[in-house]
Amino acid sequence: MDKNFYITTPIYYPSAKPHMGHAYSSIVADFFARFKRIQGYNVFFLTGTDEHGQKIQRAAEKQNKDPKEFCDEISKTFKDLSTLLNLSNNDFIRTTEKRHHKSVDHLWKILEKKKEIYLSKYSGWYSVSDEAFYSEDEIEDIDGNKVSKSSGSQVEWLEEESFFFKLSKWQKPLLKFYSENPNFILPETRKNEVISFVKSGLKDLSVSRKSFSWGIKVPSNKDHVIYVWLDALTNYLSAINYPNEDNDLYKKFWPANLHLIGKDILRFHAVYWPAFLLAAGIKPPLRVYGHGWILSGEQKMSKSKGNILDPIEIINNYGLDPLRYYLLKEVSFGNDGNISKEKLESCINSDLANNYGNLCQRVISFCEKNIGLKIPQINEFEAEDLQILDNYKNSFEDLKIHIDNQNINFYLNFIVEQLFKANKYFNDQEPWKKKDNRIRLNTIVYVSMEIIRKISILLYPIIPETALKALKIFNIEEKDIEFATILNNKYLFSEDKINKIGILFNKVTK
Questions:
Q1: Once rounded to an integer, what is the mean pLDDT over residues 77-100?
Q2: Model confidence, pTM
């Protein structure tokens, strides 16, 4: 079985500082990367910044800065956010790097050699904010301004000489590709949206600009810079050392398993990107997943609307793991979601402090007082013990399948359900009343410890720092975490020493 897994976030456009939407995409990608690692996969997890285009050039000019200097400063804030979010990414790509220029240059030459690109003139509507071209039926007039119906961004009429990619030629091959690869685009609503768009007819795509200079030059014509999306999408290849297709990274990890993106950039990833790759004779990625937005109120966050939610502020006030848990649990993955102080605080108090943190504290405290800081000796489990322990064994395959289909909510719901059952088990078994029956007392404590271990392993991809703290009870280190060990009901060895830990989560007081 192929045990390599390549996952990417969108590469973020650093025209302004990061917001909660950027944090959400990164946290979700990190969740999948960590899960696949503990499942035994060799994972390559990529994030980074897309630093070319007219939008960047204009933003730099407003600050009287050189575009590269501007990008260096803003890109650093995204790289710092990766550290703050405790991402496990293997690489951080910047499209201003030489390795990326080399890949884009090579891909362009292939497309040109295959006569997939030609020189003509572009006339139409263009959004600098979206770095996207729009047809007449995709724009509307609001207060005298022409804007994109989908994003609300202002568009401007553009006429200039341009190189075009023969996108129209790839309409039928793309539809055939979608049909043969029904899980290429998820969720289903996004797939239907893309197929409908392609079926409505594809026009050749302008893939160069001449009216500004900040970008990668067209190899055969230095008056043109390559369209920012053809440039940006190639990052997924440049990070694994394309065009050197014999290198280990490329051989192991292409085609990518999962491009995780926001729904607003679905067309670029699910239409343009596979068309570019098919035209160049390169296999498309295996899946593009377009998740929803993190809303501020009922609106998408944007600098122009002034409704940015700052993840750094939330982390400073509540901690990182509570934010990670909240975003993964409370947002229905694939749909839009929002964050509120009230819901976040409720999540911390109910799920994290009461259900998880309190379970760990109660069991270890009881063990210390009645058995000592060690794993108790046991004989055989009784029916009620196996009933709760075997929940993990019985759900093992389902959990893997749901994760492979990006069903985060099934995974989180399972954990919440098991936490509820774990607390109920400890309460119902009443080990404090079994002090005259040491065998039964020991078994109840052992089972409760095993449940803490199993749940902490499942929580590791979600709240890694806290889960590792809990696993230190049993001297389990990060390198030793394996998803398959949740099948083992006797993983812990009798008489092994255990460790006390501090409070995992403080309740939020109102």
A1: 97
A2: 0.93
